[in-house]
Amino acid sequence: xxxxxxxxxxxxxxxxxxxxxxxxxxxxxxxxxxxxxxxxxxxxxxxxxxxxxxxxxxxxxxxxxxxxxxxxxxxxxxxxxxxxxxxxxxxxxxxxxxxxxxxxxxxxxxxxxxxxxxxxxxxx
Amino acid sequence: xxxxxxxxxxxxxxxxxxxxxxxxxxxxxxxxxxxxxxxxxxxxxxxxxxxxxxxxxxxxxxxxxxxxxxxxxxxxxxxxxxxxxxxxxxxxxxxxxxxxxxxxxxxxxxxxxx
Lengths: 124, 114
Fold this sequence. Notes:
A: mainly beta; 6-stranded mixed beta sheet; B: mainly beta; 7-stranded mixed beta sheet; globular
């Protein structure tokens, strides 16, 4: 069962216009949502995150909106630039869990659940 | 700057060979992860480790094992490579102190099994 869904495998947007990438999730207990960007032959790089207690987070040209009632988030890129062409992964996580092992409460394990990605093409 | 390095960018192996993929991080992170990325399937977690000698299975551990003998190094092992293990393999690390769980990724290893 896919907990994080990106239903659009690809998206094409004219340079200078707004790019909107969408993401849906099923688990209302997620604490954080993240967006990663990935170029071919490189590892993903963190772009922006949002806490489940917020509905908007902005960082330069990138804004993430969270609609908890709809279990939906979106990434807005304004204005879109050629360097934005990449695969974007939506991801969700819980707060780090403390795993007590032999009395050591500092240990944690925490996973990120990724969507399948959306390939964004910025057209000249 | 966090740096996660992977031993090879491209690797070609034959079916049945034992394959070692190495990952090293220089930020003293406790948590390390191995993913594979396939078209249309996104990033799938193979194994992760939250401390030296500790490991946990991810979503697709079958056919893989891992080793974490030192904090900075996390190895992925394919005991007997098969063609369906042809993929991009990505290593990541994070500190448990980051509340929003940002993971730092290496550049990836493109493995082809013939």
